[in-house]
Structure formats: structure tokens, C-alpha cells
Amino acid sequence: MIMSEIPDISIxxxxxxxxxxxxxxxxxxxxxNVEHKLSYEIIFIDDGSKxxxxxxxxxxxxxxxxxxxxRFSRNYGKSAALDTGFTAASGKVVxxxxxxxxxxxxxIPHLYKMIVEEGYDLVSGWKKKRHDPITKRLPSKFFNFxxxxxxxxxxxxxxxxxxxxxxxxxKNISIYGEMHRYIPVIAKWNGYDKxxxxxxxxxxxxxxxxxxxxxxxxxxxxxxxSITFVMRFVKKPMxxxxxxxxxxxxxxLFITFWIIGLKIYQIQNHLPVREVTSQPLFFLALVxxxxxxxxxxxxxxxxxxxxxxxxxxxxxxxDKKGFK
Length: 324
Fold this sequence. Notes:
Elements: E1 9-15, H1 22-35, E2 40-46, H2 53-63, E3 67-72, H3 78-88, E4 93-96, H4 108-116, E5 122-126, H5 134-151, E6 163-166, H6 167-170, H7 183-189, E7 195-199, H8 215-233, H9 237-268, H10 280-307, E8 317-321
Parallel strand pairs: 1-2, 1-4, 2-3, 5-7
Antiparallel strand pairs: 3-8, 4-6, 5-6
């Protein structure tokens, strides 16, 4: 199949030790797109695989001009792979799916139509019927519930690997760390709020084993707190630190004036007078004043850093295949 100058779809697939499934996944994607007359490119991101995944990607790229590959020097994680894939993608619609054959490429045409014809910025898959153990399903349901409440986005499955994006969305967001599970939240806070959902087929894992352990649930909570803070205050850190610093400083100032006023009152009325430094309130006021000043300065410095920050690539790519 000959690709047009700008493909209809870019399919970004993070890969980490999935040598058994890459060929089958590639053939499946090709068959679906050919049947629906969609021009496409597949971008495999080899996230530091230790098996023969990269050699298979190179071989596929040699035999199919629609297939491209990017190889990391080590395992940076799924967010890094997706971020790099988003940068490399040239299609009108960008679709992501996992390499383990649990996501169905048969969903691609419908997801494409939802973006192009229905005007969605982002469509997330919903694995309504999951072929995962209960130890994964229950924590996932809890995380999705908490994320819905915090973000206000009515999705059932934030962490589904099968998603579709208008290309302008992926070109204007940046993900890092383990933020891939909160891409809809990042997109919304960047102004792309037409977010849809589609029930998708979820298959049992055919080869190998899952690459995610229980630690991802702890990391998920930390990432949610982080993304909530960053998205709300990354461009206005003074609003957060300055507000807390001002409140703390005012509290310290109020306690200070209270101590001074109380001492003046006691002297005027010939009442027993305690030394200021012997009162616990004195030390509370002192701490509040210091913390308030420090937080205010932190917000001020953060504002300066924000104004002068630039996005730089942080992933060492050791090889590429198939790119012009």
C-alpha cells in the first residue's frame, strides 16, 4: 500500500519485550486499514527491550514503508514512548494501542470516524469487559472513580491503551514520568475538552506476562496528585505558593500584634506580665512569619523559572528505522 504524503492515521505502539506479538499486530493493523482504504503509518517505540523486538521492527520496516521504528537506549517507560511517538507522528489522527494484542486494531476505523466526522478531540477506549485478574480490576475501578471526581471527565477507563486523538492534541501536550494514564486530564486542561468514549474489545494476553506490578497503583495516586498540581499551577505558581505564604505571614502578624496588645493591656491594668519569649504563641508567630516569607519567595522564583523554561528532549534515542 502506498502512503499519501500525510497519512490518515498514525498508530503509535509502545513496545517492551513483546517479540512474540509484533508481527501479528502489524499484520492485523495492515489488514484493517487496507480493508477500510485508510492510509496509515505504524510507529513502534522500542522502550529498551532486551529481547529481539527491535530486530523484528527493523525487518518489518524493511518490507513495509508504512512501518517506522524508534529505539530507546534503555527503558524510560510508557509515557516517554508515547511522547516520542506523538512527536514523530504525521497523521491527521493519532491512535495508540498496546503491543500485547489485548487491544483490537478492528476498533481503528470507528475511532478514526469519531475524530474526523464527529469532531472529538480525544476518544478513549473503555474495556467494559476486561480479561484481567481481580487484583487489577478492582484497583483500576477505584482509580478511575477518583480521577473522574477530581477531573470532572466522565470516562470509565482512563488507563485504556487504545485511544484516538486529533493530531493537534498530541502536538500540543507533553507527558512524562507515568502521566500516560492521565492524558485525558492533561488534554482537558490544555483546552481540548471534547472527549468521548467507546466500548472496545479487550482480549486475554496471548504471549508473555504483564509488565506492570502493584507499584503502579501507588504511583498512580502520586501521579494524580502531581498532575492536578502541575496542570493548575504550572503557569501560575505564585497563585499557589503566594497565597499560602501570604496566609501564613498574616497569621504570624496577627499573633504578633495579639501578643503585643495583650502585654500592653496587662501593663496598663497592673496585671502579671509574662515575658514574650516564654509564650508558645511567640514561637508560633515566628514560624508562621518565616514560612510565609519563604513560600512567597518560592512562588516568586518559580514564576521566573516558568517564564524562562523551554521544553527539551530527555530521552536518548539510539536508532531509528523507516523515517525519511
